[in-house]
Structure formats: C-alpha cells, structure tokens
Amino acid sequence: MTLPAAAIDEWYPVAMAPDRPLRPDQETTLLGERVRVLLDGQEPRVEANDGRNLPVIVRHGHVWTSLGAPKHDLFAIPEGEQPGRRLVECGAIRVRCSPLRAVENFLDIAHFPFVHTDILGSEPHTEVNRYEVRIREEVDEVWATKVTFYQPQAAKSAQGGITTEYMYRVPHPTCSVLYKTCPPRPGEWDIITLFVQPLEEDLCQVWPWMALFDDQTPQADLIQFQQMIFLQDRSILENQIPRLLPLDPGMEMPTRADLTSVAYRRWLKKRGYHYGAQLVAA
C-alpha cells in the first residue's frame, strides 16, 4: 500500500532506551516495513530493510525512529525531567487492533467500572462527569481537562478509593499522555503514557511509560500493575468492529462521555493521518 506522508514523516517508538538490555539486530516492523534496531557502542542505530540509516531520537525511555524525514521534533514531557520522579519503562504488549483504536481506548474513562472493575472504577460509580475538551491550535494537540472519576485503586501506591482528577493530552497521532492525581504527593501529577508503534494498520505494539512520585512500590510491582491494566483492555480492543478507527462522524454514535474521542478523530482528519483509520462506511 502507499503510505500517507503524515504517517511516514512521524516519529515512532521501536525499542526501550539502551540503558535497558538491547539485543543486537533487534528486528521489528514499522508501518508494514521491517527495520532493525542496532547498538553502535552505546548509541542506538535503526536501519531500514534496504540498508539505509533512519533518523533516531532517544527520549522518554525509548528509541524513536521514522521511515521518512520528520520536520518536527518529538513532543516533550517536561514533567519527566523533574527530580525525584521514578521513570518506569513497562516493556511492549502486542495487540491485534488499529494503533489509533489503542490510543482512543486509552482516552476513554467510561469503560473503567466495567473493564477495570474495583481498580480504576466500580459500580455504582459509573457516571462520567462533565469535562472540557479542545484542540489547542497553538501546539496542535488535543487536551481534555477537568476530568474526574471515582477509583477504588487509582494507582499502585493508592490506599483506598479516591476521586481522581485527570488531564489527557494527545500530542502525536499514536501517543497519549495522561496526567492524574498523585496519591502520595498532592499537588503533583503522576504521568502515565501510551506510546504506540504501528506494525500494520490493524496490528500494533504498545509501550507504556510512567513518570511517578512513588518511593515505596518496587519497580516490578509498578510494571506489573500497568501491564495488568492494559491486558484487561486487550480483549476489548481485539474484538472491536470495525478493526480500523472510523473517522466518518456518522459511522459510530458518540455520547457525552466520548468528547475526547470525537476531538481526537477530528484532529486526525485535520492532520491527514489515516494509517489505521477507516474513512468511509464499508
């Protein structure tokens, strides 16, 4: 297939940063093309299937590359540079779904009581309170703010249920950043991200990454908690129909809880990012 320029000239995660074990000749797929992640000394290099060197950025705990020539830098997460934060790479989880579906699911809080029962939500606390969403034109990002939801266990460090405040940020077509109440440090935000590597239009690899204020929880428990949450989502994602994310407003009926999803789809159309999307009804 012919890839759209918006997809080719974008940055994507393909491996964890080299301070983690990185196998020589680590092969993977990006937008249907085979690529290899190599180490030259301590510096990562990514090689296309035709042997050419691809651009590389090491940031947010991962190696990022592009099949094209991005004219923009990778988005920043300034909070990840704050002293005292635990930076947690959670590995990769492969999901048979559109990379855009994976991001949209991350933005959805209405499913918390039904998919993440007694952790991120519970009955009868199922109502999604009114929140605000807008596309911030000055930075070309989707933001959802003033999101609140009752959660029995908002984080691994949480002791008992709390009403959690959220902010969602979409700075990249296949990545999202979540800012949420930090139980051990009121006034700060925990940062939980979803970096999605599009393998094919209906297959992706998800790289969760976190920047937390948590001095108590063992690293393995933090990773296990986040992987458990996403694995609960995987069966839902792999059974969604259609498999690609519909961008035509008439193909799926949104509710008030879907404001972020609606803005995200509108933003993708504006950017011309159609890889993993369904443009018209079948």
TrEMBL record:
<protein>
    <submittedName>
        <fullName>Aromatic ring-hydroxylating dioxygenase subunit alpha</fullName>
    </submittedName>
</protein>
<dbReference type="Pfam" id="PF19112">
    <property type="entry name" value="VanA_C"/>
</dbReference>
<dbReference type="InterPro" id="IPR050584">
    <property type="entry name" value="Cholesterol_7-desaturase"/>
</dbReference>
<dbReference type="InterPro" id="IPR044043">
    <property type="entry name" value="VanA_C_cat"/>
</dbReference>
<keyword id="KW-0560">Oxidoreductase</keyword>
<dbReference type="GO" id="GO:0051213">
    <property type="term" value="F:dioxygenase activity"/>
</dbReference>
<feature type="domain" description="Vanillate O-demethylase oxygenase-like C-terminal catalytic">
    <location>
        <begin position="95"/>
        <end position="270"/>
    </location>
</feature>
<keyword id="KW-0223">Dioxygenase</keyword>
